């Protein structure tokens, strides 16, 4: 529990520190856009390209599929990725497999959907970072926890930023459904809080392990 709270606090603070926050923003943007891509495929569409930008933003270009599902999927995908990564981080024997699985995922996305040099460079930086964490072994467990917590925090803070902007997924969904953008923001925040709440309820422990 203490590790979870410390990791969440550190991730939240790092979100507002220029330059230091960029690796965490790229990591979160990757899973956000991957969520859009998977929703596109699940609803019968085609993913044309996936972009990451230097400022931590991202974009998924698609054709076909169900636009509402695609627009809804980004923030919940980041929350789910944070949950799964947190569960993996808590068992030290899984750490060697975490970086391999994530590296293969990143490389697969790069081969399938990345068409520009900047996104390739940022994904390469992520893979190198994951490799560096793997070299630390169990000593890097806190850094793994920070990266998983950053996904959970970003999935909460990024939707809240939409209250201050006129664009983003919420505005797109409003155009598609005429439902106020605030409703979608509330939904995403609810999903993010529920994910964090579930982990806290479990005591920050992995699935199947009892809290004391």
From TrEMBL:
Coiled coil: none annotated. Pfam families: Peptidase_M50B (PF13398). It comes from the Bacteria. This is M50 family peptidase. The keyword Transmembrane applies. InterPro entries: Peptidase_M50B-like (IPR049500). The lineage of its organism: Bacteria, Pseudomonadati, Pseudomonadota, Gammaproteobacteria, Enterobacterales. The chain crosses the membrane at residues 66-85, 97-114, 120-136, 143-164, 176-200. Keywords: Membrane, Transmembrane, Transmembrane helix.
């Amino acid at each position: 529990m203490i590790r979870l709270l410390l990791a969440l606090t550190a991730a939240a603070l790092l979100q507002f520190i220029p330059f230091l926050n960029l690796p965490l923003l790229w990591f979160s943007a990757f899973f956000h856009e991957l969520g859009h891509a998977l929703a596109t495929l699940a609803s019968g569409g085609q993913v044309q390209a996936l972009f990451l930008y230097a400022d931590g933003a991202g974009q998924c270009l698609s054709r076909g599929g169900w636009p509402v599902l695609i627009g809804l999927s980004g923030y919940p995908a980041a929350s789910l990725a944070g949950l799964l990564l947190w569960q993996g981080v808590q068992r030290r024997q899984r750490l060697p497999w975490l970086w391999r699985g994530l590296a293969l995922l990143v490389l697969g996305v790069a081969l399938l959907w990345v068409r520009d040099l900047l996104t390739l460079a940022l994904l390469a930086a992520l893979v190198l970072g994951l490799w560096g964490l793997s070299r630390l072994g169990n000593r890097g467990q806190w850094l793994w926890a920070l990266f998983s917590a950053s996904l959970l925090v970003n999935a909460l803070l990024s939707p809240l930023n939409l209250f201050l902007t006129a664009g983003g997924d919420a505005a797109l969904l409003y155009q598609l459904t005429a439902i106020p953008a605030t409703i979608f923001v509330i939904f995403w925040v609810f999903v993010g809080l529920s994910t964090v709440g579930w982990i806290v309820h479990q005591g920050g422990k992995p699935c199947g392990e009892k809290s004391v």
